[in-house]
Structure prediction request, 649 residues.
Amino acid sequence: MDAFKNRLARSGLGSILILAVLLLVVFPLAMDAFRLNLVGKYLTYGFVAIGLVMLWGYGGVLSLGQGVFFGLGGYAMAMFLKLEASDPESTKIQSTPGIPDFMDWNQITELPWWWEPFNSLPFALFAVIAAPTLLAFIISYAMFKRRVGGVYFAIITQAVALIMTVLIIGQQGYTGGVNGMTDLKTLLGWDIRTDEAKFILYFVNAGLLIAAILLCRWIQLSKLGTLLLAMRDKEDRVRFSGYDVSMFKVFAFCLAAALSAIGGAMFTLQVGFMSPSFVGIVPSIEMVIFAAVGGRMSLVGAVYGALLVNFGRTYFSESFPELWLFLMSALFIGVVMAFPNGLAGLYESHVKPRLTRRPKEVAATTPGGPPPARPGIARAGSEPAHAPAAVNLRGKVGGQTA
Amino acid sequence: MSNTDFVLAIEDLTVSFDGFKAIDSLNLYVDRGELRVVIGPNGAGKTTLLDLICGKTKASAGSIKFKNMEMTRLSEHMIVRSGIGRKFQTPSIYENLSVFKNLEVSFPRGRGVLGALAFKCDAEVSAKVNEIAETIGLLERLELEAGLLSHGQKQWLEIGMLLMQDPELLMLDEPIAGMSARERELTADLLNRICQNRSVIVIEHDMEFVSRIAHKVTVMHQGKILAEGSMDKVQSDPRVIDVYLGH
Prediction:
């Protein structure tokens, strides 16, 4: 029994289970259709946030352009839905019936060739994942092979976000421009605008999110997860242990992109449109804030972060719309300054020690006897300022934060 | 040059940084099973030499042959995979991971992205971890977070991480810097044990320590080799006394 409990604690499945119950049982019972749909929308950002936990928290690579991948996933889904909504019958008042309305408004008379495949749902679903992952691969392979990292990489992701917005807005005949793709109606004839459809989509979304968390948790517990942590701290040591560090970063970036894209596709389905306002620099930075507030080392924490910040936004922007941006920035600065490991970090350091007497801690130190007899010497080699941080991270490495 | 029996053959190696030649047409040969110590004043190019061998710095000219394979054009991880291990001057270990994890991650399997996902810590891996932990005297500390080790233990752990990969050539940059007298003794023993079936290159300043471990000593000065040979021969060389040992 104890062994089982230990295993549960180490794998972090307990906290994932609690989140699953909250999302799949408590919220649906406690909320009306409108609020539940709102939560569903917030949870799509949860995909981006857990991607950032893997990329930024574990891999140490900050991306300020996750909106690009969220948007690409969302647009791929929206293209399919838009084509389905643009059958010749319902678009017969257009000068060219059978093509999306925004194309008609822009004097385009024929469906562009690269839109054609999006008539097929399997292709659209494939594109939701494949297109953003491919773009992520190209960007990250080019950058990481040349050892571009840190701030420089973050700036490049910002530039990509900007380019993508300009491209989408500029090519309005093909993308719907600044309005995005609106009036999405049915998925294979199933009306996605009804309360019942939204209820079902909420469960699909929440289920996918839990599955994604489990996948990421599995990766964290694998050797790859250990390597990501190791790389973040001592990149050269990993490289000179025979690992091609750049490929591991590429993997983390592609994983985060694919997860964001799933979020984007679910956003389109639940909200019924997709627009460039979810692609650019500002939404991309907001997505980082979700992960930072929740805790960038904790998958579950990141989801709570996405929920809380978005609830906050909805509440505040209803009451004091002009204050929201200031509050959001203050929140981000506050989090970074006061509790860099976010809500999950606060839970780890303040709440959890009170809940359990940490039997693991005792078990870990007894076989080796007391820690090194001369802590003064132990610290002498490393910078003393790092020592508390190292102790702080202990729980994370043990994997208790999931 | 044609093939040799040397495990490492460096010829005409040159690297210049903005015209300054940190290594200047250097030739160096290391035998199988040899423990070579490289000494020399600060700025002689000792660390740069190790950087060149392990690929951290790219050579401007010349060749580095390891087991008759050219290394100068390989990327760092490929050089490691062909059997060269490098220990850095300051202990470079994963402070947040346990000693066990530090060693486990260094095991040479599952080095690709997919391989790392599929990697399992099976009996072979834990046997190897235990064997190495015993060699470096950290068997009792396997579960401890590596950041809590003493400075000397961190140095040993990094050596252990290299030993996990069974390198044929091990390069250590000032392994006893900052160690106590007792730890130096233990390190000398450790080095004598691990060079049984591999070649080792050590950079060191402490002459007493050098005399305890060195099979052969190479003295570097201004990017060139000043003298080479047994400890006694080098110590009595007037040029070495001039630039390094002092009168």
The CA atoms of residues 363 and 369 of chain A lie 10 Å apart. Chain A has one domain: 8-364+383-398.
